[in-house]
Every structure is written in structure tokens, then in C-alpha cells.
Amino acid sequence: MSRSHSLAAALALVCIGFGTVTYAQTTPARVPATPINLPPPAKRTVQPDDYKLWESLQGSAISNDGHWLNYSIGHIEADGRLTIRNTDTPQRWDIPNGTRARFSEDSAYVSFMVGPGKKVTDAFREAAAMPRPPQAPPLKAPESKGVIKNLATGEDIVFDNAQSVQITKGGYALVHKAKNPARRDSGAELLVINLKTGEQLSLGNVAGISLNETETIAALMIETDTESKGIQLFDFVTMSLRNLVWGKDDIASVRWSKKKDVLAVLTAKVDPTKDGPATKLTLYTEIRKKKPEMTVFDGAKLPKDMRIAEFGPVMLTEDGSSVRVGLVEWKAKPKPAGKPAEPKADVEIWNTKDLRTVPEQKVNAPRDKRMTLTAVWKVQGDKFTQVTTDKEAGLSLSEDMTRALLVDRKPYASAST
After folding, report:
1. Is residue 120 within a helix (H) or strand (E), and if so which, with residue range?
2. CA–CA dist 143, 140 (Å, integer)
3. Summary mean pLDDT of the chain
4. Angle of CA points 369, 328, 404, to nearest 5°
5. DSSP strand E in 91-144: where?
6. What distance in Å separates the CA atoms of residue 246 and residue 230, rounded to the nearest whole number?
């Protein structure tokens, strides 16, 4: 046995036989380390294929009881997904192409849509862009599915060919089916389902849905293939349906107040002599009565050569006492041109006092055509007030629509800076 090994063995025996042994130990001198400077790793340039891997959070929500959450993940060049998971357990569901998830008021259900996927959608868009014979039937758009999931059991109720699905505060599912492209009207079937009892009702020719604040009444915009249009009121409590408005006029806007069942309806009718339709604003109160009370705005109160825009915002105060609308010019339709005009030189003239250059004016022309002036109609007393005279002015309106803050940036704006 070598001397070093004998010493180690003897030391071990001493430790075993006599317990702790104290001995002196010399610490060797430390030699400072020489730093090694390595070149930093080269950064890789992002390539176009890398974009396909990027993900983005596109929406998230938590249930009212806090036990469930959902979030949607989107991709640049791939299908997205919807994740629904429990916040207390590992339970989760991943739904490819899932979107527009909403939990029910009682946190018992979640509704969402499932799309056809990017490849199918892209193929349809390419086919739709190709020229087609005049007699060819319209292309059938890819179908989406509406789904209602029971969070306790995980069971799914699936509705094919749906355009939207939602659950009301009272526990009714509304499934709006997709429109048949072969029909002239834009209405489609609406399924109303009582999730507690399973009772189901089918309503036809529904083009749009607007729920009151408590979600106990739905204003259904109806369009038929005979060009008849109107609004029907559906009562979820009694499961009954009745007409409110009916005729040939287009339904441009439907808006409820928050604290009372007051409904504002804006209709539009073509005027062959004017550039733009004639519009009519009507306010309905006491909606639950068999015959609701109706107040029609007097169009004679409008400024000369102005009308309520069918595309402008229609908003009500919480109690429905005042209505905000948008105004636009209403000019006579130009007469048909006779002899073709001589071609003009393509010259652009820009006034240096203009706040926007000519190219900017061209780009914003479609947006400018849809800009409106703001006005308020106070129903009691039938008082009408035009609030703004400049479409580009900044506006903040108080909730009761009795005060307004206007901001004019033009004095300090310049197109050259």
C-alpha cells in the first residue's frame, strides 16, 4: 500500500474509532483565472418563414364565477385556436379555428363559433375573384358552426351553417343561421333555445338582432323575399312575437336605451330626386304594451338641405329622453349628362391653406363622405339642436346630452408641418 493510501486509511480509522478529530489543513494559494473573451454569438436575421410561427393573443375573458377563462390565439399564416380552461383544475379544451367565445351569465355555458379554416377560406376567395357566367349560381360560402358547450359536462350542442351564436342573460341561446345566397332577401333562420328546458323555436327571415339591456326582449329586423321589411318584437318570457314596424322602407338603425325599454328606429326610403334616401326617426316607449307609444321626429325641424344620415350614429340617453343623430347634406340628384365633356388636363391644384394635401384628400374621400354633423333631439318638448357645424371637430357629449365639449384643431394645424 502506498504511503498516501495508508495515511488515508489511518485517518479513516481514527475518525471511526474516536469520533471527531481536529487537524490542521493548509489552503493552497489561489491563482487568479485568466478571463477568456469569446466573440458574441451572431444574431440570426428574421426570415419570412419565421413570420408563420408568430402568435398573437386576440381576445380573452373570464366567467362571472371566476372558475373559467377563454382566450384566442391567432397566427399569421396558419389557423388560430380557442382555448377554454378551468382556473382550478387542469381541465381545458383547445378548439382549432374557434372564435367569439362568450360565457353565459350564470357561468354554466360558453358559446363560440368554429370557422372553416384558412385554406378553405382562401380557396373560396380565389374562386370568387374569378369571372363567372351570368347564369351561374352563386358560390356557396364556406360554412361555420355555432357551438354551445356545457362547462359542467363538456357536452357540445353544435349548429351547422351558423353566422352567430350567443346566450342571453336569461339563459336563452340565439343561433342565427347563415343566409341562403340563392334568395334575394338577407333574412335567415333564427333558433331560440331555452337551455333549461330544451324548448326550441324557429323564426324566419331575420336579418339582424338587437337586445334590450336586460335581454328579455329582442328587436328582430325582418327582410322577406317579397321586399317587405320591418321589426318584430320577441318576448323571451312569454315566447311571443308581434309586429312593431312593417312596410317597404329599409331599417337603417335600431337602438335601445339602457335603463328603460325605449327603442329608436331609423328607416330609410329611396327618393329618386335626391342624392341619398329620405330618413325617418321614430321613438317607441311602453314597449311591453300591446300597442307601444310612438313619437315621430318632425323632419321640418332639420336645417335646410339636410337629412338624418342612414349610416350615422343613433344613440339614446340612458332614460331614452334624448336621441343623438348624424346629419348630412341632402342635395338634388344631378341631371344625366348629355354630350360627353371634352377631356380635361390632369392638373392638381392645391391651396396652401388646405390642411390636407391632394393625395391625402383622395385617400380619405370615402371616409369623408360618411362623416356627419352631430345633432340632438330632446323628445319632451320636441326640441332639436344642431351641436356641430364642422364634421372634423372633436366632440365630447355628456351622458344626458345637455352639455357638449367641442375641440377645433384647425387654427393650430398645417399641412406643411
Report:
1. helix 118-129
2. 8
3. 87
4. 110
5. 92-96, 98-103, 109-114
6. 4
What distance, in Å, lies between the first and last C-alpha atoms of the chain?
Answer: 94
Query: Cα(370)–Cα(348) distance, rounded to whole angstroms?
Result: 24
Q: Which DSSP symbol is given to 212?
A: -
pTM of the model: 0.80
Residue with cell 332639436: 384
Indicate the pLDDT class of residue 396, thresholds 50, 70 and 90. Answer: very high
**Count of all residues that appear for the chain in the document:** 417
Q: CA-to-CA distance for 257 and 318, rounded, in angstroms? A: 5
What was the pLDDT predicted at 49? 80
Contact 173, 167 (CB under 8 A): yes
Rounded Cα distance, 328 and 209, in Å: 27
CB 379 within 8 Å of CB 321: yes
319-372: pLDDT as tens digits = 999 999 999 999 998 877 666 667 766 677 767 677 777 778 788 888 888 899
For residue 101, count CB atoms less than 10 angstroms from its CB and return exposed for 0-12, middle for 13-18, buried for 19 or more: buried
Long-range contacts of 49-56, Cβ-Cβ distance < 8 Å, separation of 24 or more:
51/76, 51/77, 52/76, 52/77, 52/78
Q: How confident is the model at residue 18 (pLDDT cuts 50, 70, 90)?
A: very low
Per-residue CA distances from 275 to 309, 329, 411 (Å): 12, 9, 32
The tens digit of pLDDT for each residue in 52-111 reads 788 889 899 999 999 999 999 998 778 999 999 999 999 999 999 999 999 999 999 999
Residue 53, C-alpha cell as written in the block: 410561427
Burial of 63 (0-12, 13-18, 19+ CB in 10 A): buried
Please report the pLDDT score of residue 138 as a whole number.
80
Residue corresponding to grid cell 487537524: 23
CA proximity to 175, closest of 196, 144, 197: 144
* Range 75-84, long-range pairs (CB < 8 A, 24+ positions): 76/51, 76/52, 77/51, 77/52, 77/118, 78/52, 78/118, 79/117, 79/118, 82/112, 84/110, 84/112, 84/149, 84/151
Q: Which of 97-111, 135-149, 380-394 has the highest mean pLDDT?
A: 97-111
Cβ–Cβ contacts within 10 Å for residue 351, how many? 7
Instruction: Name residue, grid cell 372564435.
Output: 99
| DSSP three-state, residue 382 | coil
Cell of 286: 311602453
- Helix, strand, coil content of the chain in percent (nearest 5): 10, 40, 50
| Contact (CB, 8 A) for 287 and 260 | no
